[in-house]
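Hey L., structure's done. Input below.
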Amino acid sequence: VVYPSVDTKTFLPKNIKKQDYYLVLSRLQHFKRFDLAIHACNRLGKKLIVAGDGAAYNDLKAIAGPTIKFTGQVSDQEKIKLMQQAQAFIFPGDEDFGIVPVEAMAAGTPIIAYGVGGLLESVIENKTGLFFSEQTVDSLVDCLRRFEKKKDQFTSDLCISRAKKFDHQVFRQQILALVEEIMA
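Output:
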């Protein structure tokens, strides 16, 4: 498998201090299930930044409690800063791969994700993130509680190291090797 790639150097943190918030960032579409993150953070009283815009914006805003902040669309620089400073990046959807979680790891941030699809190939359980097993608020709440108990074990260095396995340079090498193999 040749995975999609990320320019990991763009996201590398430079003396960034983690802030007290979780982050979701993407096009705000209903199938991405950001409602789970909002409900979970509402229940736990945790700060959540929702960055992005899209068809689900108004519905998500309507369920948000006082600890949820919406930024709308953000610049690339703001995206990187938000990723670098977040305690963790929440990814409650089911996607084939998921570029944004790899970007968050490249920024030194662990992932909290629904444990299916491509995230099982990019995130390493208990090293670069945690998985929740059901796409429900209760399952995500449980995962956030587990993360809070052991968040100090997730280092930026481990996350960055893992993300580098999906760097543009690795992608180039894998494609060239595949082409050479086919040509031989």
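The radius of gyration is 16 Å. The mean pLDDT is 92.

-- N.
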